[in-house]
Amino acid sequence: MSITAKGSAKCLERPPCKKQDYYEIHAPCDEMKLTQLINKWVEPKICRDNVPGAVSLPTSSDRIPCPPCNPGMEYSNQSMCAFCEKDHYSDGSEPCRKCPPSTAPNYGLFFKWWPEIPPGMYSRCMTLEEGGCMSNVVWQPSGDHIHTTSGQSLDAYLILSLDVPGFRTKERVINGQSAEIGTISFTFELQCSQTCVFAFMMVWECEDLSILLKILQPSTHLKMKLKQNATRKIGKFVLKSLLKRVLL
Predict the structure, then answer these.
(1) 230 burial class (0-12, 13-18, 19+ CB within 10 angstroms)?
(2) Residue 85 to residues 90, 98, 107, 139, 212: CA-CA distances in angstroms?
(3) Is the pLDDT of residue 97 over 80?
(4) Is the pTM of this model over 0.70?
(5) What is the pLDDT of residues 181-194, one digit of tens each?
(6) CA-to-CA distance for 114 and 126, rounded, in angstroms?
(7) Residue 109: which pLDDT band, with cuts at 50, 70 and 90?
(8) What count of Cα atoms within 13 Å lies in the side-chain half-sphere of residue 146?
(9) Nearest to 35 by CA among 22, 26, 24, 44
(10) Which residues does the UniProt record annotate as the domain Elapor1/2 TNF receptor-like (predicted)?
(11) Quick one: pLDDT at residue 233?
(12) Domains and CATH numbers, the chain
């Protein structure tokens, strides 16, 4: 059996399946807050699992406890994590509770667990090469981290974006300098089979402005102070992380 891309001059033999040709996901939590680890082939499936030397798709795991939701979230309908409503709080392992009198929640987005891609976060593949994005699975949640998938073309950018509607603190100037209104921090690691780049960007869409903050390599913890409230100025604040040719 053979395969060919559009415009190819010849057909190629379909290779034996390898570990990189499948990925692991958490099944939705059931009413007992239990889940399973399920393996799926990367689509479209090009490799062959019925030839010598090929790996087979692992079977699903036994039922295991669901990971907790992230702080400020709770399980909704026993299966998906949802944000607490206004004036409520949760550490992620308990249902949301109303704040005691004379207190207020510490509002923020805190992502510590990755059973799924959180609400307001999106992933996509971008390439100039036709057919360069071979799979619609670009970023894969894996419990305590999220990682990019393999199998895309050499020029592919694997994008993870988070929409932030704005910050509660108003912009202000102290001693002639803009004061901090928020903080962004995250830890990442690059494990690359070839040269790769990590880029972190802030995008103000209404002004069609994209500012590249850092290009970093290899692993590090990044923390940045924000001094501009996107909600007041243009209505939307988007974070984008681009990784090119990265295997995590």
Answers:
(1) buried
(2) 10, 9, 11, 28, 33
(3) yes
(4) yes
(5) 778 888 888 777 77
(6) 23
(7) confident
(8) 24
(9) 26
(10) 68-108
(11) 33
(12) 117-247 (2.60.120)
Question: How many CB atoms are located within 10 Å of the residue 114 CB?
Answer: 19
Would you state the structure tokens that stand for residue 97, as one six-digit string?
A: 């509770």
Report yes or no: 246 and 192 within 8 Å, Cβ to Cβ: yes
Retrieve residue 227's tokens: 């001094």
Three-state SS across the chain? CEECCCCCCCCEECCECCHHHEEEEECCCCCCCEECEEEEECCCCCCECCCCCCCCCCCCCCCEECCCCCCCEEEECCCEEEECCCCEECCCCCCCEECCCCCCCCCCCCCCCECCCCCCEEEEEECCCCCCCCCCCCEEECECCEEECCCCCCCCEEEEEEEECCCCCCCCEECCEECCCEEEEEEECCCCCCCCEEEEEEEEHHHCEEEEEEEECCCEEEEEEECCCHHHHCCCEEEEEEEECCCC
The reported pLDDT for the residue numbered 49 is: 92
Q: pLDDT by residue (tens digit) across 52-81?
A: 999 999 998 898 888 888 999 998 776 788
* Residue given tokens 């479209």 in the structure block: 44
pLDDT on residue 205: 56
